[in-house]
Structures are given as structure tokens and as C-alpha cells.
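Progress narrative, Year 2. Work on Helix-turn-helix transcriptional regulator from Ornithinibacillus massiliensis advanced from sequence curation to structure prediction during this period.
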Amino acid sequence: MNEKEYYLILRRRKGIGQLELSQLLNCSQSLISKFENDDCKMSKDKIERYKDYIEKK
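Result:
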């Protein structure tokens, strides 16, 4: 399991939706989906905020 898969599983276990994350990161839900499916990249800042929110929620 790589880091991205770890956070995806953790996000789902905690019941955090992509829409919730997109509002926090000020981006579209589709960007979150594409990022999680390795279809695009996000900025390092957004990735750090993504991981931090999932860890702390």
C-alpha cells in the first residue's frame, strides 16, 4: 500500500467525503477524485492540507 492509498482508505473509514475535502481545499470535487485515482496532480500545499485534515478529523 502506498501513501495515497493509505489516505484514501483512512478518509473513507472516517467518513470524509470528497466534497468536504474540496470545500476545505477550495477546489472541485472532481480534482479530489482525479488525484485519488492518479489522473492528475495537486500542489504540494493542497496535498499537505489534504493529509493533515484526514489525519486530524
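The chain has four helices and no strands. Helices lie at 3-13, 18-25, 29-36, 44-56.
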